[in-house]
Amino acid sequence: MTTPNRALVIIDVQQEYFDGPLAIAHPPREESLSNILAAVDAATEAGIPIASFAHIYPEGAPVFAEGSEGQKLHPEIARREAGEWKTATKTVASVFSESDLAEWLRSKNVDTVTLVGFMTNNCVIGTAVTAEPLGFSVEVLSDATGAINLKNAQGDVPAKAVHETLMVLLNSNFASVATTAEWTAALGNETSLEGSNLVASATGA
């Protein structure tokens, strides 16, 4: 197995997810944040590229409004942000859709993106799915991401069920899912994370 050339992609670690209607419910947001910061520190120490994205909507929007407190990055991410990071804003789920991230990654010979941040049920899965046709392998850190409770006309699903189901789904095809500790060990050993596939997941192999 070849050594992956990784980049860490930080998705929307913004104040909106720590207070208000979009507050992350599972895993507990402070635990997720701690693991996100651990991944950032490990990536920085290993010298792998880092990209950070922030969601933004026009002034007056109910969430992520430009200039609002909720739209700001969490201060611990802002404090770590370095000049060599790629930073951008977006208005849709995938970090690839409105940016030149793919070109930036290719310029650095990256073939594997590691996703941390929020939300599992929107921007994380949206990014993972759109990475596949671009030719990038994906890793998702299960304890450095997070979901919200969902309730609409189709049902009522608690955040724990949302997050855990999506981790299984992602690992079945779109990504290799691991904890931050497992990923940090793989980073240090320069090894790949092992995911599953649809056939193995369907049969429980």
- CATH-defined fold name: Rossmann fold
Total number of distinct structural domains: 1
State mean pLDDT (0 to 100 scale). Answer: 97
User: Class by helix and strand content?
Assistant: alpha/beta
Beta percentage is 15-25%
Radius of gyration over C-alpha positions, nearest whole angstrom: 16 Å
Outline type: globular
Compressed to H and E, one letter per element, the order equals EHEHEHEHEEEHEHH
Query: How do the strands line up in the largest sheet?
Result: 3-2-1-4-5-8
In helices, the fraction of residues equals 25-40%
Distance between the termini: 21 Å
Organism: Dietzia timorensis
Domain Isochorismatase-like: 7-181
Pfam family, one: Isochorismatase
Keywords: Hydrolase
Please provide a written account of the structure.
The protein is an alpha/beta fold. It has one domain (6-203): 3-Layer(aba) Sandwich (Rossmann fold), CATH 3.40.50. 37% of the residues lie in helices and 21% in strands. The protein contains seven helices and eight strands, in the order βαβαβαβαβββαβαα. It has helices at residues 29-46, 75-80, 101-107, 120-131, 159-174, 180-189, 198-203, and strands spanning 6-11, 50-55, 86-90, 112-118, 137-146, 150-152, 155-157, 176-178. The strands form two sheets. The chain has a six-stranded parallel beta sheet. Strands 6-7 form a two-stranded antiparallel ribbon. Helix 1 runs parallel beside helix 6 (180-189) and helix 4 packs parallel to helix 5. The longest helix is centred in the first third of the chain and has 18 residues, at 29-46. The radius of gyration is 16 Å and the shape is globular. The protein starts with 5 loop residues before the first strand and ends with a helix. The mean pLDDT is 97.
